[in-house]
Amino acid sequence: MTETYGNLINGEWIKDGETFDVFNKYTNEPIAKICKADEALTKKAIDNAYETFKNERLSVIERHDILMKAVELFRKHKEEVAQIICAEAGKTIRDARTEVERGIQTFIASAEEAKRICGQGMPIQAMPGIDEKMAFSIREPIGVVCAITPFNFPFNLTAHKIAPAIAAGNTVVLKPAEKTPITAIKMGEILLEAGLPKGFLNIVNGFGHEIGPILTSDERIAMYTFTGSPAVGKLIKNSTGIRPVTLELGNNSPNIIHHDVKDLDRAVELVVTKGFGNSGQACIAVQRVYVHEDIYEEVLEKAKQIAENLKVGDPSLEETDVGPMIGLEEAKRTENWVKEAVEQGAEIVVGGKREGSLFHPTILKNVTEEMKVMCEEVFAPVISIVPYNDIDEVFQKVNDSKFGLQAGIFTSDIHVAMKAAKELEFGGININDVSTFRADILPYGGVKDSGFGKEGPRSAIEEMTVEKVITMHI
């Protein structure tokens, strides 16, 4: 008997209307029915969020205390939430537990930042002839925030939107990914239990092409924060006028291993495991690996051995390293991209096999920059390893992409490292680590088709508040 989940409107779970199924991504069996929000219910959620923002405010201390109470409850329910993620996202149980812990830390950081929201003093007297004036700024909540979240990190990436929005004093309308809504629903339940007053969080479930236009066309929503594909990001941006939008989109994450790398074993271990973690379904998962020709064959052999030893299968088992992709269609799409690359001259070093929605960790060589597995976002457990002999040329190849979220480089040469920091066209550059590394408290975001705006609790709060400049004649 599957459980039915509703939509959260004004503190109540509404279980009416048409439903859709959520499936266990490994067994493909239905695990829940989700009530779909229609146009009327979606507008009701916006009505409620708007009226709540206009008529009710939480003090800084109240926001902090609610978020910290939620942290206590998340810790109490950590295993339950991890099991939900494992089932509905197909993430290995070990990675699911890690995600929940990261999300908890995101809530803690957001609670702490709630107490630090402030403006700044401004040196207006640097202007001639106005010694009799002073200036400062204050920060105020922006209003109703619409948060649209992805399937691949249904807890932590939702936390990165909800927790800062609440910390900043806003109200939220959340639309979770239709393939993984149960995690977000559980987060909503816990926030209510933690004392979040009704109206500060509304959750509407359904499909993006149906709900999206309703959300983006309603001018009572003050800001949009979205994580997902560049195609959908562009639709949101083009539909929301001059209202602020934060977009965290795709990437085809490049990683460079230079010949002078201090710890080659560590570098190879990282590029392989972080390319295949979460079945490669992370926007900063390792995808393109450029290796200096002096160490190329050695890296290729080490990478092959690591990949061959990864355990693929049931994500609920403790020993599993790689679980299923989010759906059969994505696994088939990955299989077709790999086949196309092979037809164009690429060679499979390891992997290339699909079993239902499982796609075995795959390493390719002899790839070219024009292949989809290189120039597009593969979003799958597929990495390509390419030799190079000149660091300047490889920097050009790395930059020759429509994406620019994060990159990684391994080198013991400080000049090469600083040149990478200066020349690589990405929102984040990890030196002696892979593109996949993210510290949740730091600013996070990309350039080009990888989006704009920054996440991370402090940065997100800045995006979700309005700075007012105050001048005073004294």
E-strand count: 23
Class of secondary structure makeup: alpha/beta
Distance between the termini: 71 Å
CATH fold-type name of the largest domain: Aldehyde Dehydrogenase, Chain A, domain 1
What's the total helix number? Answer: 15
Name the shape in a single word.
globular
CATH class membership of the largest domain: Alpha Beta
Low-pLDDT sequence parts: none
Would you identify the CATH architecture of the largest domain?
A: 3-Layer(aba) Sandwich
Q: Summarize the main sheet.
A: 7 strands, mixed
Q: What is the residue-averaged pLDDT? A: 98
Helix content, binned percent: 25-40%
CATH homologous superfamily (4th level) name of the largest domain:
Aldehyde Dehydrogenase, Chain A, domain 1
Which range does the strand content fall in?
A: 15-25%
With strands numbered from the N-terminus, the spatial order across the biggest sheet is 15-18-19-14-13-20-21
Count of individual domains: 2
Report the radius of gyration as a whole number of Å: 23 Å
